[in-house]
Amino acid sequence: MYPLAYDPRTRNFHYDVECPVMAEYTAQLGNPTSAASAHLARIQKEVLALEMKDPLFLENNFAVDSDYFELQKLKHEPLAQSVAEKAKHPVFPRNVRGSIPSRLTVYLDRQIWTPDNLWVIGEHNKVIYYTPRWDALCPYIDVNKEMLDSAPKPFLVYAVPPESAYGVPVKDSYGLANVSTPDFWKDPRRSRKFGELEKQYRKFDYSETVAWGRDLTLEDIQRMGGKHFKLYEIGDGEVAGFVDYIRDLEVVILRVYAPGGGLVLTDVSIVLPERNQIYGSFCQWDRTHKNRSPGIYACLLACKWAVRNGYQYYNLGPVGDFRYKDLFVTDLEPLYGLALTDMEHPLVLDQTSPLHVDFAPPQWNQLYRDADKLRHAIGFR
Fold it and tell me: What percent of the chain clears pLDDT 70, i.e. is strictly above it?
């Protein structure tokens, strides 16, 4: 919701006076097609949903915001009344399966979006920026000109497909485990560590389920990963993006239970047949078992599932600073992304921001990878 805060008693929105973009934000509210108006509309819908299912959260959240931020009332006079009227007819039903299609819904391969749910807010040093709703949990995010024109700026996209005409190299890679080769399993260090893990879990129970994404609801995904999402600040919008992304894909759900019956871990991967891989989206595990390295064991189980079912790779996602992935990774796949920004934006001036950490300044606002792919993208041969 940042930089906004909602007071459920007065039904007014407030904002953090120290947020550097608020002058621009409030100015844009006069334009119903602006990024600020789209953001406010999305926040209104989220508030309406929370009023129906968790009103106490809104009260507690405003109490925390009031204590932490210096708040000022947002000058948007019709807001309180319009929210009160809409609250009688909530926008989101409780059993949502991803987005609610409308005449503004856009489809791009596996991705679905509307103008008010395309992006989610990121924050760096109290400066906001935007990423697509699939960024946290989904691989190979397609883009097109319509999407890029619709998104507020700065808009950062990671993991554009390697075959796409769009995107520039970013400072990270996907880590792939080539599980189909005997050398993967025979590597001395890997073989020893895998043996130790198997020994630690020999008395634990294991189950695996393969489900079609279209049969999984938002609530199903939250039950499997809600604690993980909260821990890593993955919002409801990103979870809804995941539900949309998997609707025509199979999902592998691996679970491990302790001898007493308690759930130790739930690991969820997406099957990508066209890439001959499964992609590890998230793993939620019980911290009381941390001495058994449940996250690493989940990766081992996913590797074993992949090879048993004829897939060449288990994709562990971006390697980054996750050193535990070194145990599995045999191949690095370059990552491509986009960084679209106003050159006067505060994020540009912060040398520690994602613009600088993940991209080089000459790459900012560069849409296409090279001349040949640009020609192909615009229809020339």
Answer: 87
